[in-house]
Amino acid sequence: MQVEPGTADRLDHQRVMWLNQANTARRTSDEIYASALLGCLQMLRSGTTAVMDHFPEQQFGVEDVAAVVRAYEDCGMRAVVALRIFDGEYSDIMPQGSAATPELLSAIDKSNPLRPRPLEETLDVCRESITRFDRHQDRIRVFTAPSNPVRCSDALLVACQELAQAHDGGVHCHLLETQAQVDIARRLYGRSVVEHLVDLGCMDQRWSCAHCNWVTVNDMALMGARGAIAVLNPESNLKIGSGIPPVPDLLANGVVCALGTDGVITNDNLILQEAMQLTAMLHRAGEADRGRWTTVEQVIDMATVGGAKAMLEPELGRIAPGQRADLVLYDLSAPWWIPLNSPEQQFVFGERGSSVRTAIVDGRVVLDEDGVVGVDEAAVLEEARAILGASQRRNSDILEIADRFA
């Protein structure tokens, strides 16, 4: 999604999702590589050294996975490539009621890039990708990543859990981003999706769950007891109006939290600093008890240790003996750092990543004063400029579907 900044505003979840398909479907391997590398440049320059990339969305092959893995290899980042899979309908973004006109339904039937493929075919792609790329260069993992449990069969969800256990890996999913997903889960299972996943033997410490805006108190208690991780994406959620994660309640129920930016179409940037600031503040106006306000120390912990737990990397997230040397150096001469009254508060509330000068991954400098080491940044930017236009021309049929949702 890295070439999509500035493409979506004041749009609901349905239209954003269809517009994203028009912008990203049917990519070539070279386009996937250039787009992923563009994201790497932004993350490293703003202080992120490791990422869980929920990739991609449409039906994909092993060579598509190879392209995004190559981008992380070449830039030196640490990454989990979380393979976004499903074998059911994206019912939460399909037209409902009077919006489900025969013309729109016919267009979707003809050009839907999110048409599910057979379960075994999907799992075969995952197995081969894990075999070829998991633990590559000792800094790239490959996890299965059911797009959203309500879009997946029980068999697929259980298979993801089994693959994670077999390879000592993880499972990543989108969880209860919108109210519509709550309603669909109730219709499908007669209970919450979290309760259903627990009964399937899933939703344990191997699971990281993006969004978690509409989790119930019981959902949070189950996640806390089983060690599942909530990955909060507050900036994306606020931009499209999908919800607000209940941060104080998640923490009160013992849920480990990590932070994300979500994709560029719903956020316009991959700057984790902005997620840190919003996570610290977004609940405060509605919470009279200041003792429940999230502290900057908690937010920094989410961005470091919490992220490491989501990636199943216990040797990341802290500066301590025995930890991997993934470090970022900030120049404290910027105005927002002067005077230096509280490094923690100024890091969360003042810094936006522009003070980053050096990034180190596994003891190797991957960003210095000249930019990302070993990457021709100008060439990447030039190639990336052409991708969106080419995608929209190629996917004019899908773009028409997105426009109909307007």
Automatic annotation (TrEMBL):
Belongs to the metallo-dependent hydrolases superfamily. ATZ/TRZ family. Gene3D superfamilies: Metal-dependent hydrolases, Urease, subunit C, domain 1. Keywords: Hydrolase. The keyword Hydrolase applies. InterPro entries: Amidohydro-rel, Metal-dep_hydrolase_composite, Metal_Hydrolase, MTA/SAH_deaminase. This is Cytosine/adenosine deaminase-related metal-dependent hydrolase. The keyword Transmembrane does not apply. One of its GO terms (molecular function) is hydrolase activity, acting on carbon-nitrogen (but not peptide) bonds. Residues 28-366 form the Amidohydrolase-related domain.
